[in-house]
Amino acid sequence: MPKDLQQPLPLQENLLATSSSRGLAIIYQLPTCNMSTGPGLESLVDQTISVITNDGRNIVGVLKGFDQATNIILDESHERVYSTKEGVQQLVLGLYIIRGDNISIVGELDEELDSSLDLSKLRAHPLKPVTH
């Protein structure tokens, strides 16, 4: 949050508003989740997901389970390694466990769209680690 923002004020159950010295109003929508069962991961079980880790890795696999600390179990997983000089390399990992405190983003993967991509022709800079 920028330094000139004021303390957020609740608008309704899942909305916060704040303002800055420049007169900007910023509204945040807070995610709704049940912390005892995880942040909506139950709807992704047995589906292919993509996980971005804090160290910048992209791991794709089938979500088989998770716990209250968002530790996740992936099956049929592989890591996608991006490069600006050659296509995306896919390193087979198989059954894989990722600690919840090492996860930055979990997202559902559109398998139809993903299978239509030619990863050997895709060039991209690798992600940098998350800094706190």
UniProtKB/TrEMBL annotation:
It comes from Vitis vinifera. It is found in: Nucleus. The keyword Transit peptide does not apply. LSm subunits form a heteromer with a doughnut shape. This is U6 snRNA-associated Sm-like protein LSm8. CDD domains: LSm8 (cd01727). Keywords: mRNA processing, mRNA splicing, Nucleus, Ribonucleoprotein, RNA-binding, Spliceosome. Plays role in pre-mRNA splicing as component of the U4/U6-U5 tri-snRNP complex that is involved in spliceosome assembly, and as component of the precatalytic spliceosome (spliceosome B complex). The heptameric LSM2-8 complex binds specifically to the 3'-terminal U-tract of U6 snRNA. Belongs to the snRNP Sm proteins family. PANTHER family: LSM1, U6 SNRNA-ASSOCIATED SM-LIKE PROTEIN LSM8. It comes from the Eukaryota. Residues 36-112 form the Sm domain. Pfam families: LSM.
